[in-house]
Structures are given as C-alpha cells and as structure tokens.
Amino acid sequence: MLMSQLYAPTLRETPSEAELVSHQLMLRAGLMRRSASGMYTFLPLGLRVIRKVEQIIREEMNAIMGQEVLMPIVQPAEIWQESGRWDEYGDEMFRLKDRNGRQFCLGPTHEELITALVRSEVRSYRQLPLRLYQIQNKYRDEIRPRFGLMRGREFIMKDMYSFDKDEEGLDASYWAAYHAYERIFKRCGVEARPVEADSGAIGGDVTHEFMVLAEAGEDSVLHCLKCGYAANVERAEGVDRKLPAPNGEKQPLQEVATPQVSTIAQVCAFLNKEPQDCIKTLIYLADGRPVAALVRGDHNLNEIKLRKFLNCDVLELADEDTIVRITGAPVGFAGPVGLDVPLYADYAVKYILNAVVGANKQDAHLINANLDRDFQVTEFADLREVQPGDPCPRCGDALEGARGIEVGQVFKLGTKYSKAMGATFLQENGVETPFVMGCYGIGVGRTVAAVIEKNHDADGIIWPISIAPYHVIIVPVSVKDPAQTEAAYKLYQELQAAGIEVVLDDRDERPGVKFKDADLIGFPIRVTIGPKSLEKGEMELVIRRTKEVRSLPVGSILAAIREILEGGEQE
Ligand code: ATP
Ligand code: MG
C-alpha cells in the first residue's frame, strides 16, 4: 500500500471527545471515527487490526472444536419472553417493531437464539458436545457509552455457546474455552488475567472474567501476589478472621446525644472514635420484606453478596418512610439494639468491642453496644466489599487492589436457558434431559483498546506484531531524490513478494512529518532510506517499541525484517 493512497487521516491534535489514551490514539492514528454516541466506523487501518484479532480468536475457537455460525442481529421478542429476559433486560435493549407491529430487538447477546436453534435440531446425546460461535455486532444501549471502543453501544463480540450432556461435559467445555482465552490474549500481545467473577443477571454460578490490569479499567480487581488468587471486587470473598476475643472490658451501654450527626465520619469526629469502632446499619427491602444489614463502619456492604445470601430477586435500600416506620428515626440513626427486623451481619461485626451504633432515635447514638449482651444477629455471613490489604481467602496474605479492563468472560450457565426454553435431548438411557450449557464472550474492540492502553508511548501506538495493521513502513527521506525513490520501490516490491505487509510512504512531505505519522500509527518496523546511508549501500531499520536503530546493508534488510517478525508477538 502506498501512503499517498491509504485512507488514514491522522490528527496532530488530541480530539476533545476522547479521555482515554487508547481512544485518543485510535482517533489520531486514523483507525476509526465516531458516527454517533458509542458507535464507530472502522477506517482501513482500524479494520485490519480488528480482523487480525478476529482471526486469532477464530483459530483458537476452531482448535477447541468450535464451529463458526452467524446468527441474525435482529431477534424476535418471543424467544426472550420464553427465557424471561424480555422484561429483565430493561432499557439496555434496543427494541423495534416490524411493519406488522411484531416486536424485535437488536441482539445484546445470543443465548436465546442459539438455544432455540439447537432445541429444534439436536436430539441425541450422540450429537454432543456442540460448541458454536460467531463474531458479530452486539447492541446495548449503555447508560454511559464512553472511552471509544471500551464501552460502545454497537460493538463486535465473539460469543461461543457450548451444549453438553452433563456437568462433566460442561466442565470440559468451560476449561477448554478458558485455556483458549489465555492463548488468544497472549497472541494479541496483552496479558489478561482470569479472575473469579459474579455471574450477575446472565445466570449460572461459575464464571471468570479476563482482565487486563490497567488504570483505565472500569472494574476493581483484588489479587494475591503470593498464591495467585484473583477476583472481581463484586465477588472477592471476605474471610471470618477468627480473631481472638477482643481485648478489654465491655463497658456499660450508654445513649449519647448526637444532634445532626449521622454519617460515620461525622459520628467519629463528634465522639472521637474510629470508623472500625462503629457498626453501620442499613435497612433494605428484600422482595419487599424489610431486613437490616450490618457492616463495620470502615467497610462497604456488597449488595450482590447480600442479594445472593437472601436469595431474593429485588434488593433495594429502604425508602425514608420505611426507615422511619421500622427504626422510629430518620435516616442516619438506625442501629441493631432493639430493632425488630431480621439482622444479617458481616463477619467483621463479630469482633467489635464497645461499638458505636445508631440509637433508632433522632439525634442519638449508643456507645458500648456489644453483641449478645445488647443485640442479637440473625445470621453472620460474608457481606462486605473486600478491600486492598484484606487477607486473601486462600492463603491469608494481604490482597492487592488493581483496576481491570474486562476483555472476556466465560460462564457455566448450566440448564438455566435450556430448562426455561424446553431445550432437551435424549440421554443414552432414553431420558429427556435439558442441555447443560456454557457461554463465552470476548469484546473484540475492547481488546484492541486494552492492547493500546498497555502498548503506547508519547509518540503513538506500539502494535504487537501479531495485530499490527501493517508490519513495515518504508520511508524515503526525500521522494525528490530518484536514488532514494528507486531503492524504496525496489525494497517495497521485495517485501511484498515475501508476503510482508508493507506501506511505502511516497508522500512529498518533510521527513519529520512522515516519521511522526509512522510512530503515531505504530508500524512495528520502519525502514528509513536517506541519502548518506544509501551512498554506503545501507538503510536504517528502526524498531518502534525500543526505538533501536540498525544500519544494515540493503541486501540484508529483508532477512532482518523476517527475523524480527518471526521472533514473535512480543516484539
Ligand atoms: P460490562 O460489565 O463491561 O458491561 P458485560 O459483563 O456486560 O460487560 P458480557 O456480556 O460478559 O459483558 O460480554 C462479553 C464481552 O463483551 C465483555 O467481556 C467485553 O469485553 C465486551 N463488552 C461488553 N459490553 C461492551 C460494550 N458496551 N462495549 C464494548 N465491549 C463490550
Ligand atoms: Mg461480562
């Protein structure tokens, strides 16, 4: 490709719409352009990268017996009503009607459609396992589309679905996908760490997210440097620390006036206490039933854990009226003493001696509240959000906190969809049995954005060779010099004939402009052809990642390039 003809409109200035480096660089390097909020057109260079990532994914999916299919983007409402997700999905789903008023949606995901397909076709255990995948646009009307490809409303996803005859089969499919994901991200030149995750609304119970650890990430991850445990904060397990009984004497329970003092910070300042001496009492409605959740003052309640523990569908913080009715006080003064609703407490609450709690009375708190003597707890459980520094649930070492970009996720769905949608097959013994399913997603665009977050410098993108839009750019310093131009075209043809993806910068521009574009776009290798070196029969080979410059005889350029390209994806 000649640079003069390549449609790669690079930008010198950083577009104001872009906050993240990856987003800025994708616009500046001319990889893509925004068409509407969360929707992008890929330009030639961007599309080449996307296609390379897709190809890596395809190879690895095929290697684990995945078979590629392509389902429609537009899906009928009926199948979503069968699974119960037509209502559950809410505003994130793009919905539309056809001319006859029939309802459809733009697929945010494809569990329903594939289950409907397989249920009408696959009858026997002999046809299992079946692993089908596609690479296709997904549509989600995200509340906050942002950061370019990171959180779009239209985005490319690889989604695979596995159908097995039993749990053991699912286990094999799940781990095959898990290991394929490890290979995919490695081949794309980025480290993505599998972390235990919450399965959320999609159902199922075992799931891992693949996280690229980066400041730009929207997820919080906790990981243990000692034993390798890693989990999303939504999921990370808190431990019952089994501390020795707290030292000191139980002091007499006492009410103190705390006028207009209601937050933990205010209470601590007012009473000269530490947050860990306090108990936070939160009133929730679990499927409409009031309950109280207790956590230590310096901890946050993890609502996902509480909802799972209570096994309820809807968990919401109680409204002000309910709080007044239940506690007898306005918001900010709830406490466990004398409270007449079930009390669920995080483990850490067990070990607080002489706690500060709300008095269930306006402008009042109690000090020296003690478990058993002053209040009882219905049940203790792991209910809090784990924080950096907390003990690892596996080995007890301190956990580290990090930000993560979720580039993929694998789920064991079990029979959630097959049962709801009546998708069954005949077991060996003739018994009709629902398929045991798994699903496995990768965000293609988000992966590209994550790669850039981890591979750039002040000058631009540094592509891993495996997904670079082109491998090499040849830059003659001046195209007005026939000797340089001739040498440039000769090398260009030689590289092309050798199957190397190469761009020749044939523009009549100053060398500085050409070098800037080459660095911005991030070609892994640049060959510079200048008058002085050419006289010596040499050209300069510049490695984008290290900026290393090698002067080499013209005749050995191809071999040197080959060696670098074959040397691997990490270059
Ligand atoms: P998130 O929690 O970030 O909203 P998700 O868990 O809802 O994502 P999945 O349903 O697991 O997403 O989708 C599989 C993969 O698709 C994700 O791991 C992510 O890489 C990608 N993905 C999901 N939503 C988006 C989006 N809005 N824009 C770009 N990629 C996305
Ligand atoms: Mg996910």
Give the topology.
Blueprint: H1 21-28, E1 32-36, E2 39-42, H2 44-63, E3 66-68, E4 74-76, H3 77-83, H4 85-88, E5 95-97, E6 103-106, H5 111-121, E7 130-139, E8 154-164, H6 167-187, E9 193-196, E10 206-213, E11 219-223, E12 230-232, E13 254-257, H7 264-271, E14 279-286, E15 289-296, H8 303-310, E16 315-317, H9 320-327, E17 343-346, E18 355-358, E19 364-369, E20 379-381, E21 400-414, H10 416-420, E22 424-426, E23 432-434, E24 436-443, H11 444-454, E25 456-457, E26 460-461, E27 472-476, H12 482-497, E28 502-504, H13 511-521, E29 525-529, H14 531-535, E30 538-543, E31 549-553, H15 557-566
Parallel strand pairs: 3-7, 15-17, 17-20, 27-28, 27-29
Antiparallel strand pairs: 1-2, 4-6, 5-6, 7-8, 8-24, 9-10, 10-21, 11-12, 11-21, 13-19, 14-15, 14-16, 18-19, 21-24, 22-23, 25-26, 29-30, 30-31
Outline the structure in words.
It is a single chain. The protein is about 25% helix and about 30% strand. The protein is globular, with a radius of gyration of 30 Å. Strands 3, 7, 8, 9, 10, 11, 12, 21 and 24 form a nine-stranded mixed β-sheet that branches. Helix 1 (about 20-30) crosses helix 11 and helix 2 (about 45-65) crosses helix 11 (about 445-455). The protein has 15 helices and 31 strands. It folds into three domains: about 20-235 and about 400-450, 2-Layer Sandwich (BirA Bifunctional Protein, domain 2), CATH 3.30.930; about 255-380, Alpha-Beta Complex (YbaK protein); about 470-565, Anticodon-binding domain (Rossmann fold, 3-Layer(aba) Sandwich), CATH 3.40.50.800. The chain has about 575 residues and is of the alpha+beta class. Bound molecules: adenosine-5'-triphosphate and magnesium ion. Adenosine-5'-triphosphate binds near residues 109, 157 and 409.
